[in-house]
Amino acid sequence: MRSIIKVVFLSVIAMCLFLPSALADNSVTRIDGKNRYAVAVNAAKKSWTTSSTVVLVGKDAYADALSAVPFAYQKNAPVLFTNSTSLSTDTKKGLQSLKTKNVIILGGTKSVSGKVTTQLKSMGISVKRISGKNRYDLAANIAKQMKSSSTAVVANGFAYADAVAIAPYAAKQGYPILLTNDKGLRSETSAVMKSRGVKNTIVIGGESSVNKSAYAQLPSPGRIGGANRYEVAANIVKKYNMSTSTTYISNGFAYADAASGASIAAKQGKAFIFTNEKTLPKATRQIIGSKKITSFSILGGTSTVTNTVVSQLKNPVVGKKVFIDPGHGAHDSGAVGYGLYEKNLNLDVAKRLNTKLNNAGALTTMSRTSDTFDSLQTRVSKGASANADIFISVHANSNDNSSANGTETYYDKTYASANSLKLAQNIQPKMVSALGTRDRGVKTAGFYVIKYSKMPSVLLETGFVSSPVDSNILKSATYKDRLASGISSGVSGYFR
Ligand SMILES: [Zn+2]
């Protein structure tokens, strides 16, 4: 009896521990604010209850903010922003609630005016300013105020996204961020590297940001590039294996939100990645998928990171690689009935599914996108070279007896048997409820594409083109769209 109670008790514990996380969507929170000042203050409050020192940067002086994060990190200070002409109200309130005693302004009086200094002093705050003749000089002067480091980061002073993306890592390591431009290495930068005894350089951005000649003049340089800012940020996370237990994400074009994000990501030792406003870029999906990131904190309001992106981040299919195989094609029409050609129907459904999954945040590959023919072997090898997480083959059924009807899903037991079954069990009921067809259930069969695909794989028989009932449903664009949505949500359910 006692052991039964123990077993029951342990099972309940186990269910409590595993069920919610196993069935949950990804976690997404947002650090919002009515403007960039408020976003920065709210971000600061996530990491600091009080902060005696704050680093203050002009609202449009993005170059000044680039080098701010590693410096602020050493001062255990958040980075806040202000209007250049007068201290922004939200920032003022933030300084009060953080009980700030010292403000270090980065940049000249053009970006943060003397009036702001006066206002700060009248609040009983002591003010220090680090300025420079230009952005390169400012970055060098900030570096001089940091603890010495034999490694420095060099980024283009006009490509803020690159510098912001490396900031959390650079901060953690105590590396200053120095700037240059696309014309070549700046003298301010090389001088400070010499005087500070820098022996290694991490160059951020491609050759269009830091060119070959600048690169060649740097001490022991190594480059982290990328086709765009999303890829640069993703490559940084990958290269330095940064903690993704919670990953900060901001719009790659909203520099103030990005700098705020980098600042708290640095403080918390977390990874930091970029999105664009309306959809997750490919490189961002890829890093989410490869690092299996399931918890995100967004910096900025819905105007910079829309709720569409939130939905994608929440969806467990985000970053997952789905291979979609529309059965048959070209001379191989598949089943034919009631004016339906299976090859066309399969392609139509597969294309809709492709769109739905892409909108949901997945990375998709199709074996064909037009009326072409691939052998079964080719389909399998395409799925393998896509390194897909799952393989879905889309088909329709046929029978000599026109009364045969309904929807069924096949899996094979050769490879990934349990997960193939799980995938089938997630998709099948969603197809049936989308189409209102007869539920023929989940079945096993050694169809070539699911037998030889090594990843979890299923073959969907959406309905019978030989059935007057099913074929009517499958002719309807509305039903095909519902079907695609159903399959897509079944796929999400599988990854949930
Ligand atoms: Zn078929």
Sequence-ordered SSE layout with sheet pairings:
Layout (H helix, E strand, L loop, with lengths): L1 H21 L4 E5 L4 H12 L5 E6 L3 H5 L1 H7 L4 E4 L6 H9 L4 E5 L7 H9 L3 E5 L4 H10 L6 E6 L3 H14 L3 E4 L6 H9 L4 E5 L7 H5 L4 E4 L4 H11 L3 E9 L3 H14 L1 E6 L6 H9 L4 E5 L7 H8 L6 E6 L9 E2 L2 E2 H19 L2 E4 L9 H10 L4 E8 L9 E5 L5 H19 L3 E6 L3 H5 L4 E8 L3 H8 L1 H19 L1
Parallel strand pairs: 1-12, 2-3, 2-4, 4-5, 6-7, 6-8, 8-9, 10-11, 10-12, 13-16, 13-17, 17-20, 18-19
Antiparallel strand pairs: 14-15, 18-20
The structure holds zinc ion.
Number of domains: 2
Mean pLDDT: 94
Main sheet properties: 6 strands, mixed
- Strand order in the largest sheet: 16-13-17-20-18-19
Cα radius of gyration in angstroms: 28 Å
For the terminal residues, how far apart are their CA atoms? 36 Å
Strand content: 15-25%
Give me the secondary-structure category.
Answer: alpha/beta
> What's the count of strands?
20
- Amount of helix: 40-55%
Number of helices: 20
